[in-house]
Amino acid sequence: MPSEQNIARQRAVQNAAKSVLAALPQMIDASDNEQTIAEKAKSLLQQQGYTDTWYYDCHALVLLGSRSCMSVSGKTYQPQTELVGQTNLITVDLSPLNEECWGDFARSFPVENGRVISHPQSLEFQNGLRFVQAMQAHLLSIARPDYTFGQLFDWANLRIRQSGFVNLDYRNNVGHSIATSRENRQFIEANNQAPLSSVDFFSFEPFVRLKGGHWGFKHEGIFFFNPSGALEEL
Hints:
four-stranded antiparallel beta sheet, 29% helix, globular
């Protein structure tokens, strides 16, 4: 269980990422691309004093258009120049760093008529966004301190399949612990018997596509267990 001081420090980094993704949609139009969106996100982080990233050299991993369903590591990621255009889905995954504290926050933004909108008309957009948001809410209701990373993996992937979606992650996992080095992360993956409570914080980030669908959706947050054993989101 993390200390109050660690929670406060971790929350500050995560709040910076949240504020960036609250402001970014208003800065995106049809003429943008992955490169320009990543640059805008990085600039917004830097304006808040977050100049470093823990995810290789990838402050903002942006995917859109023909790459919407691509799963790629920040180690090899290179933003491309395909335009947003009139209809699209843009996923932005931020990884700010403040000393040893990581932020990890991702959202998918639907674009219709050349603008990011909160309430899309497209049923695929509606269903995908609703599903990844519901996964986060369900996690808060089912996770316990003795729940293992492997059990969470099994639950998430069963729910993804039963709901008519496909897991797009290149590792097939749905999140990881928030560590002090990339190599020490515990992944939410099959057969990982470590309990969730063995780490102070972990991310949950299903990346999914509707079977037969065109777009890949992600919704990520960081979670921890409070002193009463209930799961909370930063």
